[in-house]
Amino acid sequence: MKSFYLPLITMILTFLTGSAQTMSELVNDPDYIKSVTFNKNPENKFPIYELGAPFGLTFDDVIGDEADYYYQFEHYDYDWKPSALFKNEFLDGIDDMRIFDYRNSFTTLQPFSHYMLNVPNQFTRGFKVSGNYMIHIYNDDHKLVFSRKFMIKEEKSTVGVAVRRARDLNYVNTQQRIEFFVDSKEVNFIMPQQTVQVAIYQNADLNTSIMNVKPQFTVGNKMVYRYDAETSFWAGNEYLNFENRDFRSPNINIDYVTRDRLYDAFLFVDGPRAYEEYTFFPDINGNFLVTTLDNEDNAVQAEYVNIHFAFNPIDAVPANASIYIMGNYNVFQLQPENRMTLNERSGLYEATIMLKQGFYNYRYSLVYDNGDIDAGYFSGNKWQTENEYTVLAYYREPGARYDRLIGMGTGNSVNITN
Hints:
8% of the residues lie in helices and 42% in strands.
């Protein structure tokens, strides 16, 4: 009897422990996990999949000791609170299995192990329902290593999105407003004010969500949202970027390169842009792309390089705040590695981040001690900025126990109108 109950007790304790963790604790990469990537278009890493489509995740462990990692999936409501579904209600097959598919790097100064998880596989056949999900990666001691959010959708409605300038004259030059509608041809909405929920995201940053917005009016089965302040985002500015496809010589925005244990690439010193006129230059909205000049297999041949960032804020930084380098290379997390420190001798704020060769977008954000983030403090908020907005529509039928993700729409501010 003891051998039967022990795994069950362990499973229950694991579930309770995981449920008690806050979202910031769940998405909190250690410094040896790098380049976590869904198998998505590299220039649009918004993590959403069609119900029934293959799912994939890759990551690198730069310790490179072929550690064992295990994966689990959890289902969440539209607002990222754990749903009431049991595992067998949303997952076809089993999880809590070891990731068997990995390869070790070769011809690189920094050794690393490259892990690949694909669903369906011999244990996990896929997902039964739509909605919000997280994948949790554990080590041999069953300690959580890192997590990632993603979504599974079913096309049951049309979501139309338009990007407008703010109506409020106080924000007309600094904010972008999202208007949209949700029109379902296959789902007959019952009490839509209570059963339909929406979430709006700016670019691929899942920390930017606007939720709990109700339709202003309905026309049949079509719900219309034409708010001002309630659906407005700070416009931000185009991301800064660098490229080091050839790590042995300077490239885009790289001043010079040296070699010690690893290659070290020193970027040109950046400065604030808040009071400069808006200048358009193409970016990939905070995302990154692992790429090299002449390798045949970037997954295991791309080199890890120490990227040295330097920032001159010109004006004094508030005493109750810090400067962080932000980007989707770590899903916009606030980690010790990307927190900048003041070099008293040079007067510059500096940070060094080890990143795989490629093309990276980044920005400098001011983060207050209470956790508030001002992404436009140094870069400014320009209404002309090119941003991609995603609107997700969820529906929970009366009496149901989870939120179905029934539609997605996107809009780009390149087409912004008054």
